[in-house]
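go over whats below:
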Amino acid sequence: MPVPFIVEPDAFNPGTRDRASWVASHERLLQTWGQYGVLVLPKGDGIIKALAQLPQQVRTKWHIALKSARFRRRIIEELDLSSALESLERLVTLSRQIKLACLEETRAVCFGLDEDRLSIVAADGSFEICKLDFADQSHFFRSEAEWNRMIYAGESRNDIWRERFQELALDCSNIAVIDRYCLGRFDKLCLEARECGLIFFLQKLSKLPRKRGHAINIYASELETMRNATMDRFGNTVRQIRFHSGTSVHVHIVPDDR
């Protein structure tokens, strides 16, 4: 699941660091954020003011990321970041909402992060602090590389949903399902009165605690037989799912020769 993380505003100040390495560390963080992270922000424009400290080259990339749908963000209105940063004990209390705190170097040292350590992970594994320079090498971000592994036959659907998709779907508005065989499997299992993985996934999406639904696009290959009947059955099944307001589900049939 994506890693909810915060960046201390003072960590955007490059200080006396080497410019090239500082720019590189931000580029690595932005890449990691886009792949595996959710940037948690308090209400207000604090991060915009903090970004003003950055060199133009990096500042522009941050502004683009903050406007892009590809970079997940989560605003927590009641988050008091200034108060939380007063001590490590207070910071750890955010562990139910945040997994990783990227800190300014001096504060990181004060919280016990010496030069020989990339990060500190809480004893129960629920929270981690690191210096912003090494955020991409943090325990939580490195663990999320597991997303790239294959899903093997026989794995529990519930485990796959919980570990890979649940948190991700909370912070995404647009979802694409690309599976050439999904409608064929749906039809076979539907006729056997069994639930397929696609319907399981759609039902899970409908139960997420979101104010608005998702724009869902499903891409499958042409069906060999009974295309119209299959689409009718799929449409009827989808209409029985109680999606959130604003949800749309579109099916795109793509010829195999494309």
Notes: The chain has two domains: 3-145, 174-254. The beta strands are 3-7, 37-42, 72-76, 100-103, 119-121, 128-131, 174-178, 215-221, 248-254.
